[in-house]
Amino acid sequence: MGKITGFIEYPRAKQPYRPISARVKDWGQVLQPWPETELAQQAARCMDCGIPFCHQGCPLGNLIPDWNDLVYRAHWREAIDRLHATNNFPEFTGTLCPAPCEGSCVLAINDDPVTIKAVELAIIDHAFEEGWVTPEPPVIETGKRVAVVGSGPAGLAAAQQLRRAGHRVTVFERDERIGGLLRYGIPEFKMEKRVLDRRLEQIAAEGVAFWPSAHVGFDVPVADLRRDFDAILLAGGACAPRDLQVPGRELRGIHFAMDFLPLQNRRCEGDAIPDAEFIDAKGRHVVIIGGGDTGADCLGTVHRQGCASVHQLEILPQPPEARAADNPWPLWPNIYRISSAHAEGGERVYSVSTKRFVGDESGRVKALDLMVVEQDRVDGRPVFREVVGSDFTLPCDLALLAMGFVGPEKEGMLEALGVRLTERGNVWRDRSWMTSVPGVFTAGDMQRGQSLIVWAIAEGRSAARGVDVYLMGRSDLPAPLA
User: pTM of the predicted model, to two decimals?
Assistant: First the structure.
């Protein structure tokens, strides 16, 4: 633990952010570094809780009390070693993870939890600044070859682990740059791509080969991978978006979030995208359908593009300010949260359902007809009932569908491999992370369904052990998940 009375002396502080008036004018990171003296106080709040439930809350099993104590004592080199022992990419989780560890913090029983996520990010940023993050190539080569399909967090974590075990690893990515949704789905203001690139430089220096613009199952035949590699790991994510089939869906100006966000990210990378192909919110009345993180990413993006107005819709009721009676600690706290994008403006509308898109004479959407709904439960499952007479309309000439994903894309690679699917449409796996096809493994959202970045990294590490055992008969790689 840190300071014995730290959690009594120091209240939880809020992570510093750039002023809203400045940050909405550019695409730079909204977070600001925390002064080390203040950060040490926050780390000192980590109490001697006996059973650190934060371990249970984190799928990676991060050794959180250990590195909180080390930061409090300014032992930064030891802190990054302890952090990297369980997490390949703390700069990703420290920026993007919703921090289930903080929801499980024992201090949260009757106080504000420790700022675990902020301490984690400070450790890895300090380590990069000091030059402590260096390549770790294997000492012994096994001669085995592994293909990893997908370069998101699950694929990259697995690739790095497998390379460090001595295997020759090639990562295939269908887009022209490596990174998956880390590069094309996460807005620049949320995580600048230099953060991704510096980690990719380390992985490449360790000997992992990257093959971008390689769409397995289309321009790269599955048969070639089966012939040229000893094992294949599928980590292509859950990229099939959930649609909204209501009248007027065919109108122009209605787009999936993952058609919208990558275009702006590509422009931030310097790509020349013609205006005719770009989805621009400038001067438009925007409605974002979906109240989750992807919707918030759209919200921050349309602010910076200069929208005229923006509403973010959510079919669920507004969460309470504090835990409800049926949401006790250490469960994930289902409470009202305000992200950096929400703080920048726009209106959040809860308990509404879209009835139809309304178009103008040119065939472009101009409004949404909506209705208030009430949530109930039938056999434990949520159902929504329309409130009679609650109809209303919002102006809208750009609608962004951010309602999540329904699983992996089946066409191409999965069809060619003939892997078994679960009843939810995800890729089935056994306890060793192998699919129904011998030698073909899977990890991340492709087998789990849409989830958190911390789960993706944990699954990538666990699947890497499964692949290593398959190839070598044993493995020394750690596996946080069964």
Answer: 0.96
